[in-house]
Amino acid sequence: MNWKVNLIPYVQVVEELKIKLKGMRKQFEEEQRHSPIEFITGRVKPVESIKEKAYQRNIPISDFACIEDSIHDIAGIRIVCQFVDDIYTVVEMIQNRKDFCIIAEKDYIERNKASGYRSYHMTIQYPVETIHGRAHILAEIQIRTLAMNFWATNEHSLNYKYDGSIPTDIKTRLVNAAEAAFQLDEEMSKIKNEIQEAQRIFHRK
Predict the structure, then answer these.
(1) Which terminus of the chain has fewer CB atoms gathered within 10 Å of its CB, N or C?
(2) If DSSP codes are grouped into helix, strand and coil, which group holds residue 39?
(3) DSSP 3-26
């Protein structure tokens, strides 16, 4: 199987979504309004990670069509926000778009995972024009705050280090850290208006 060829549409999805979402952020800035989007990143899952996930799900590595149907985060976009309220503003904006379809949504903020993980996940189906015609590609959009992103990035690194079996004492600290991060988000939300006014003053200067 030629992985590079098969993943070209996924690369295209990531690049197109990044351009569109950054365009939304720019519109807020040009209208001198608070942008709910702080920054955007995107990636196509590395081939080895796809193979590992396929193996875990008993999917034949040679069957890319089955892999596409079963693994929905081959293309991934992450939208990072300043405040929790901003997450739901972004969610609503995405829900109102007409250029792709939302397949599934999971709110891990209202109902966080046992590990402490918090984020809002959306699985979308995005149309891509290829030399073989239109392809409908599944992609995952994760929306989270800066604090949630900091926690999730470190948790991911620890999972990688310990091959998914993080020691119990570190797991406990991670859960405590997740709660502390969420408390930070809640406290910052209480002074959201003051922070935004300070940022407007800073940008005017």
Answers:
(1) C
(2) strand
(3) HHHHHHHHHHHHHHHHHHHHHHHH
The two tokens of residue 113 are: 């995972």
Give the chain's length: 205
Q: Looking at the DSSP assignment, which residues form a beta bridge with residue 141?
A: 77, 122
- DSSP letter at 78 equals E
Tokens of 39: 């920054």
Q: Which residue has the tokens 């796809």?
A: 50
For 8, what's the count of Cα atoms within 13 Å in the CB-facing half-sphere?
A: 9
* 18 closest CA partner among 104, 139, 121: 139
Structure tokens at 86: 């901003």
Structure tokens at 77: 């976009």
- Three-state DSSP class for 69? helix
Q: What is the pLDDT along the chain (205 residues), one digit of tens a residue?
A: 899 999 999 999 999 999 999 999 999 988 888 899 999 999 999 999 999 999 999 999 889 999 999 999 999 999 999 999 999 999 999 999 999 999 999 999 999 999 999 999 999 999 999 999 999 999 999 999 999 999 999 999 998 899 888 999 999 999 999 999 999 999 999 998 888 777 776 666 5
Which residues does the annotation mark as catalytic?
A: 140
Amino acid at 190: K
The angle, 0 to 180 degrees and rounded to 10, between the axes of the packed helices 84-95 and 168-190 is 80
Tokens of 76: 């991934």
